[in-house]
Amino acid sequence: MRIILHLSYVFFLIFFSCQPKNKSMNSQKNTIVFTDSSGNILTTTDLANVTGNVNYQVKSEQYVDSKAQSLQNEARSLGQSGKYDLAINKLKQAIQIQPNWAYPIYDLAFTYLLKGDYGNALKYYKQTDSVSPKGFFTAKTAIYALEGEQAGEFPNGLYLSYLQIEWTDDLNKKLAIAKAITEKFPGFAPAWKELAVLSDNKQEKNTAIERGLSLEPDNETKGILLINRALVLNENGKKEEAIQVLGNYIFSPDATMGNIELAKFTLKSIAK
After folding, report:
1. Where are the TPR repeats (predicted)?
2. Total count of domains within the chain
3. Which of 80, 113, 132, 169 fits a disulfide with 121 by CB distance 3.0 to 4.6 angstroms?
């Protein structure tokens, strides 16, 4: 089973609450899949309708001002036409109207990234993360990469080059870019994550997972690596270990919203 995280603006989110330890089981089919020492449990009922997909747009019942929404839509059209400065102006207007809405802030960060203004890109990715601390698309990975560039750990423009993995539909090209980055910049954890996801070679996949986790990656990257570690464990006949990895991650305080849903979906597949 291959878990692939795409840079897409369209996901669908379903929230599922986890059952408390003392909840009675009303059906024999509602069996416990995972339990830990803190009293957290996951049952088959908790996982029944999980899809693993996330829509950050509707992650909460937050009211979105219609004018702010209109400005964001205009900005996206302008950005797609390469009119970055006009898009930035529209997004800043949207943010002024609704400063607690993460979408235009994230789009603003991305637009600055496309302009090659990495300082402002980092500034607004951080602002996105502040507004949506449980994760908003790839903001956490962007912060990790751009902070590394700012500190001189990675060369300027590495994150933008890395995003080409997501922008191509050719799996061979994706894999080639990921390998090239890991070879030239072995300390860049997100590239190891991509290699773990894309490679069909079991040894290469396992090496990529463990190498990526050893680099203290951002929480988004870490989650994908742990989910893939669980998949490898399950494929090697270590189902219970795989379940423990996923369950512990789901209840981890640093787990991101999107990865929690992905981990639940993976857990449901393994539990079957």
Report:
1. 68-101, 102-135
2. 1
3. 113
